[in-house]
Amino acid sequence: MPETEPHSGRCAIAGKPNVGKSTLLNRVLGQKLAIATPKPQTTRTCILGVYASQDPPRQIAFVDTPGLHRPHNALGRALVEDAKGGIMEADVVLLVTALHKNAGIDDLLGSEEMSLLDSLRDGGRPVVLAINKIDRLPSREALLPLLQQAQERFDFAGIVPISALGGDNVGGLIEAIAGELPPGLQFDPELLTDRPERFFAAELVREAVIRRTRQEVPYAVAVTIDEYVEEAKLTRIVATIVVEREGHKGIVIGKGGARLKEIGTRAREEIEALIERKVFLKLWVKVAEGWTDDPRRVQELTGREEAVPLGTPAPPAPEQEG
Ligand SMILES: Nc1nc2c(ncn2[C@@H]2O[C@H](COP(=O)(O)OP(=O)(O)OP(=O)(O)O)[C@@H](O)[C@H]2O)c(=O)[nH]1
Ligand SMILES: [Mg+2]
Known about the structure:
This protein is globular. Strands 2-3-1-4-5-6 form a 6-stranded mixed β-sheet, sandwiched between helices. The protein has a 3-stranded mixed β-sheet with strand order 7-8-9. The protein is built from 10 helices and 9 strands. It has 2 domains: 7-178, Rossmann fold, CATH 3.40.50; 197-306, GMP Synthetase, Chain A, domain 3. By secondary structure, it is of the alpha/beta class. The mean pLDDT is 93. The structure holds guanosine-5'-triphosphate (GTP) and magnesium ion. Guanosine-5'-triphosphate (GTP) binds at residues 17-23, 36-38, 40-43, 66-67, 132-133, 135-136, 163-166.
C-alpha cells in the first residue's frame, strides 16, 4: 500500500568536498539554489532547501553542508565546523560519496567518511548512503560488491546509487530518506530556503569567479553585497569581490578588465535566472590580505550571518525606491 501519512524533517547532505552534494540539492529542488563547481570546497556554509510533495505529503528540509576535509587554515576550519553543526541538527544524515572508475570500497568510504560514520554510530540517527556519479561507471555490475561491502562497514538505513547530475535514481533516494523521517508536517509550506536573495546573488558572483580562475584564487575569493535595491524595472546590485593578495586582484580583473567583464556578465545572467528579474550588476575587486587565515574575517566573508532560523521564511529583499 502506498504511504499516505505525512512525514517531514531535516536531512543533512554530508560528505567530502566535490562529491556532488550541492548538485544533488539543486536536482532535488528542481532549481539551482546552491552553487556547484568542479573545484572542491565550493560550499562555505550550510544552505537549506525544502523539498515538498503533496502526494504523499512530505517535506524534507535538505541542508547542503560544506565538504568534510582536513583543514589547513581558518577558512577550512570554519567550513568543517559549519558542516558538523548542520549534521548534528539533522533527523536523517545523507552521506554522499562519489564513484570514479575502478573505485574500491576504501575510495567510497575513506577516512573522512568513516570518521563521520563513527561519530554517528551510537546516536540512533538513520544514515542513508548515496553513491553518486554512477554515470562514470562503465557497467553497473561493478556496484554490487561495493554495496555489500558498504553495508558491512556501517548499518545504513539505505544505500542508493545515483547520478545527481543526470538525475538517475534521485526519486529512489528521496523515497529512502522519506522513509526515515518523523511523522507530521512541520515547515511553512512557502519556505524554500533560509537565505535572502542577496546571499545567492553573492554566491553566483563567487561561482563565476571560481569558474574563471585557477590555482589558489578560487579558494581565496569571497563576495560581499554592498547594495541590493529593487527598482521598478530591475534589481540593482553592487558587489565586491574580495581576494587575498594583490596578485589575485590582477588575475580577477584580467587584461584591460576583460575577465572581470566576463565574470560580471555570467553572474548577472545567473542572478536574473534565479530572481526572474532584470539585474544591473556592478562589481568591485578588493584585497583583504590573508583573510582566509583570520577567523573573524572568515565569519564576515562567508555569509554566515545571513541565515534565518528554520521555520521562519527568509525575509524579502529590501524594497527601496531608487
Ligand atoms: N559525472 C558526474 N559529475 C557530477 C555528478 N554530480 C556532481 N558532479 C560534478 O562534481 C563536481 C562537484 O559538484 P558539487 O555539487 O559542487 O560538489 P559538492 O559536494 O557540493 O562540493 P563542495 O561544495 O566543495 O563540498 C561538479 O563539477 C559537478 O558537476 C554526477 O552525478 N556525475
Ligand atoms: Mg557544495
